[in-house]
Specification:
alpha+beta; Aminopeptidase; 2 domains; 7-stranded mixed sheet; 10 helices; 16 strands; 35% helix; 19% strand
Length: 432
Amino acid sequence: MSDDRENFNPDTSDDVVFNTKKTNELRINENSQKTTEKNTSRPVHAANIKSPKKQDKNTPKLKNSAVSKKKLIVNITGITLSSIFIIAGIVLLVVFYMFTARINYFSIDNNMSENSFSNVSASESNTNEKSTDTYEGNLLNDRQILNILLIGADTRYNQDRGNSDTMILISVDTKHKKLKMLSFMRDTYVSIPGYGSTKLTHSFSYGGVELTVRTVQLNYGIQIDRYAIVDFNSFKGIIDKLGGLDIDLTQEEVDYIDWQTWKNHQADTRHELNASSYTYKPNSEGVEVANVHLNGRQALWHARNRGEDGICSGDDYVRTERQRSVITLMINNLKKSDFTTIMNVIYEIGPMVTTNLKASELTTLATNITKYLKYDIVSQSAPDLGMIGEDFTYEDYYPNGERLNVIDITDWDNFREKIADYVFGDTNRLKP
């Protein structure tokens, strides 16, 4: 096939016109029409080879515009999210501080650590109080363990003081993920700064929470990071705010609550709970119990029960067990609650508690409360009744001619080591 090019001029435009020739005819069908196909071909010439198509001038502008829009959207989204987080954080802080502001804050001057729970110094503080059988070393502490002394008193902190019925060390142990309770027995014979040796419970009536904390630190060697006081009326109010307690009680325990309620003119009938109306079944220890719902007033009588008036058997050891069981039950009830309910409970019971926990510390505890509520709960008295003869004996002392039947620790140094293992470690040498 020949390819004739006419009038080729390299200076002409790309639209060069070429002559065409008629190509061979192809016969499609032998009986009929002939189809003539013209083969039009363009000769290859340098002038006819087009350079790569230039990009439209508008294209980069469109791409840049799209990129700018994406960046704008990202920036707006980032600013919006940041604003939401900032506003949410401010609201959360306001809410927590509003909650914590309802708690009665009362600072004490007893050389307690001023470090917060979130940043407790590793250095140990000294006590200048020294006497026979008192602790002469550095107070033991751990930045991962918050030790709060819970004091149950029959009066408010700013009124005339009575004895402290309850002294429980509550340790929030983030190292071993445990909530530990340690009841200091109120009849333990200890040295009280400025007052000599007598029962531990007297420290509160002598000098309030300040002297009580100093006495515990002086004798047991444990640094008390913070304290909390709940008086009897507050205790009743807290239980009522929680909706009461469902607790397993023996028939005589139910009857004791009815007896105290009637005796103290808090009910019109001798049998408000009516102990005989329940069905009692053996618990895991074989003791016949029934599940009884108590309001705040009734729960307080149960927590104070140590077997007076011959209505119910027991002693101060049994009473501390009852107190710890009530606290454990309250914690377990909170475990079943959602965060909003827990915050509402904290808000409601705030005015019923006096403490030197700072607002920032309360906020730390509140924000982590759902985590802490998942910790295992361990409970112990110091000393344990089963360690009689080893850790302590019962003795009679006559200071100022007054007979005191007390718990007399046989070896304070050994006893302190056992307490330290329990509070700061993961062992319990206080039990037999």
